[in-house]
From TrEMBL:
This is EVE domain-containing protein. Residues 6-152 form the EVE domain. Keywords: Phosphoprotein. InterPro entries: 5hmC_binding, EVE_domain, PUA-like_sf, THYN1-like_EVE. Pfam families: EVE. SUPFAM superfamilies: PUA domain-like. The lineage of its organism: Bacteria, Pseudomonadati, Pseudomonadota, Gammaproteobacteria, Lysobacterales.
Amino acid sequence: MSARKRYWLMKTEPDTFSIDDLAKVKTEPWTGVRNYQARNHMKEMQVGDGVLFYHSSCEVPGIAGVATVANTAYPDPTQFDKNSDYFDAKSAREQPRWEMVDVSFDRKLKRVIPLEEIKAHADELGPFALTQRGNRLSVLPVSAAQWKFLLSLE
DNA sequence: GCCAACGTTGGC
DNA sequence: GCCAACGTTGGC
């Protein structure tokens, strides 16, 4: 018995890694998350979970595509790599601090669903981590109803 | 580039 | 354990 499919939203800066990049590489290890809450969400992920691929810090921030969780969480190798920007001297190999999943390309949306538009539907969406005041989480949960509604905006 | 929000660090 | 200082995120 597998757990019921769940849904998530993952942020990325398109200048660094966009939905088009994911389409090219097909599957990408989601390295570099250094926030405990975001990490905890990744540890909860199951293979096949749905991911809204969100572009942040760009001209039109918003949902740009759909992806799928490709495997359960495993230690992020960049935390042990001294040459990596994500190196964490305080993380021990015997007890890695940071974990991550791989994310597989599903599809690019016909248009980006802008954050501005998402905010305008606050009533339909209900409580949503993406639009909560001051939110900066890069990996956050989405309910089945929110998933369905957001994709209906496409 | 600005700045609000928020997480982390480190002195005490 | 408190909290000021600092760094980062991310919209605008």
